[in-house]
Design brief:
The structure is a homodimer.
Chain A (H helix, E strand, L loop, with lengths): L12 E9 L2 H14 L13 H6 L2 E9 L2 E9 L7 H9 L8 E7 L2 H4 L8 H9 L6 E6 L6 H13 L4 E4 L11 H19 L4 E3 L9 H11 L4 E3 L1 H4 L1 H9 L7 E3 L14 E2 L1 H12 L3 E5 L9 H10 L11 E5 L7 H8 L4 E3 L11 H13 L2
Parallel strand pairs in A: 4-10, 5-6, 5-13, 6-7, 8-9, 9-11, 11-12
Antiparallel strand pairs in A: 1-3, 1-4, 2-3
Chain lengths: ~375, ~375
């Protein structure tokens, strides 16, 4: 038995809601296990009746059946265990238990003292609307493709899309710094092309390059892109690390909007009985990470998310989270203009429509296709 | 249709092996889909018979049944598509398809030209053995716990463990920089305690603090720990970002061994039909990331990995991967000394035994318990 410990804690707790598989007894065992695994990871019997047992241990606040084989556990943790850091917060919410079957993190609620530790998105929905001068309508986005296509031709795609009124023209997330897609040349050419189109149209389209590469060069890459005239950054939190993205959002020298990409992140949501819910991952966690818009696969496209899961994501992007701004849902993944009417029902106006490959079907008339896309979006 | 593109590619390809669910037709569809989704992410019909179609498209090299409802696909990609960068390589191997059900990355093989882009672990098995002066026996490791315990008392645990001959005394991965576990004080105290014990014993035990915190401070934290006398670093790739860990391994100013922690990473392996295999994640990818030893939950502990999965991990830590060094499997997660005989059968001598909580059962006699642990390990 350890000697008793006295800690000077605030008493404030953060709360995580998990779904647990199994009957009531199994769910209770899993909930008890989470309380230990996510905190002391130590034999509970060796801890006396002290502040560690009373406050550091996770605490089951509620355990409710959802069905005979699925329970919802509400577990709280002392706010101090988060260290007021993003990495430790994610570790606390879903670190070791990510390795255990039958535990899914559904959502979380933080006290204001912890939300205040994070700046969240620099722009958020309203900031991005101001920046792009789009007060109310859905925002349009497309992607520059395909990998291997020459940069001069890719820049012409960017020009055509901007001419047709696409607001955000982003790199495909597979464009890194390959010999056939050199980063600096790509940014230079695409920035120039979009600026040229903006001069003709009077629009404020922006180009968002994909920011990837060695972790110790990532800020330099982003700075270079900004100097060259990029209007924002595409970045994949699971590839670059969630806190690397947070550090970009917080960096005053950068000061441009971020769009999150879901690459390498699908494993968190793919099993309904484990991982992290769509809403928590693409919505809540993304807001703490600090992206202003977050891409996820829309229902009915090339991926398998349901309409309800997508609605859950969009709701989590706007739900109250202290001072953390709302962000734009950016449903993509095999979308086309025929889906807009249905997407309007699900997402309303506060959405960033991402249509990629489908805009290229008439590849000699990208500007015309883009104009049709824009006209549809303006009908809202 | 796009105009034809001519690319100056080497013809070298890297290979990824995926397991796909479904019958033959479904598996073929999934394999075809991977070839596009992971590369051009663009309507294939718009690409002419050019170098993009011929080389940038993923290529199905083989498709073999494993059962009526599971197929193994071998898919190759042009080495240039990786950009010779870790983040883009992971994106290429398992980026968007992480979001698709029924696709599991089992293993990969890279050409030497791509292995050469990575340094891999700085020490590896032989380097860590030299550093610790342990030519042949298994290496012993324990963790400082529980969260909330005062740093002075935690340092005394470290002293006792070192006195008893534990080679690596690491932080529990939940110790960040909380008010009750301040990073600098913790490192100072634990380094001093282990050094004092080493003076008494003549051993070379080392203390490995958990390196976490803001991405833009992580190298500074590691440098501080090294200056204070830390002997290595514990780090969780899924929390900090795989390439952040790679940048630490490559950093000559740090030059200390890294131990990987599986926190927040379990979602990749938890579903047998999706994600990444245990061997690829904890073995192959960890070696590219550059950890010298990697922690994973042993079979028969608090987690659910099978003996075969653990054997697969250990094999992947030693399989040929160009010049990339072998690393130590560090099975943990509810281990105790009674498990050593069985673990010896599975892992042989080239293993890092991680026993945490179980060593504290007789908390007034940690050194004695540690000596028993060491005696058992020396019997190999």
């Amino acid at each position: 038995m350890l000697p008793p410990t006295k800690l000077n804690l605030s008493g404030e707790r953060l709360t995580a809601i998990y779904h647990l598989t199994g009957d009531q007894a199994e769910a209770r065992t899993k909930a008890d296990d989470i309380c230990i695994e996510q905190t002391i990871e130590f034999p509970a019997a060796l801890v006396p009746d002290d502040d560690i047992r009373g406050h550091i241990f996770g605490r089951i606040e509620d355990l409710q059946p959802l069905s005979q084989e699925r329970y919802e556990a509400t577990i709280s943790y002392a706010v101090e265990t988060s260290g007021f850091e993003l990495t430790q917060l994610f570790n606390l919410l879903f670190g070791n238990i990510s390795i255990k079957p039958g535990v899914r993190l559904m959502r979380f609620e933080l006290p204001d003292s912890l939300y205040k530790a994070f700046n969240g998105p620099r722009f958020g929905q309203s900031g991005l609307r101001s920046l792009l001068n789009i007060p109310t309508r859905p925002i349009l986005c497309t992607a520059l493709k395909p990998m291997g296509h020459p940069m001069s031709a890719m820049a012409d795609f960017a020009y055509q899309f901007a001419l047709g009124g696409i607001d955000i023209i982003k790199d495909d997330h597979g464009l890194a710094n390959q010999q056939f897609a050199p980063f600096k040349e790509r940014v230079e050419r695409c920035v120039e092309a979009v600026a040229r189109a903006n001069q003709e149209t009077g629009y404020r389209s922006i180009y968002m390059p994909n920011i990837t590469g060695p972790a110790d060069q990532i800020l330099d890459n982003a700075r270079l892109a900004k100097e060259l005239g990029a209007g924002g950054f595409l970045i994949a939190p699971a590839l670059m690390g969630p806190d690397t993205v947070r550090s970009m959002a917080d960096n005053d020298d950068l000061g441009l909007p971020l769009m999150g990409h879901p690459s390498f992140q699908g494993s968190y949501v793919i099993s309904p009985d484990a991982g992290v819910s769509h809403a928590a991952l693409y919505g809540q966690m993304a807001r703490l990470v600090g992206v202003d818009a977050n891409i996820f696969p829309n229902y009915g496209g090339r991926f398998s998310f349901s309409r309800e899961e997508c609605q859950g994501i969009a709701a989590a992007m706007e739900m109250p989270m202290g001072h953390i701004k709302s962000i734009f849902p950016s449903p993509g993944g095999g979308m086309n203009v025929d889906r807009i009417a249905d997407m309007r029902e699900v997402y309303g106006r506060d959405v960033l429509y991402l249509i990629g490959g489908a805009l290229y079907q008439d590849s000699d008339n990208l500007a015309k296709t883009a104009r049709q896309f824009r006209a549809l979006a303006e009908q809202v």
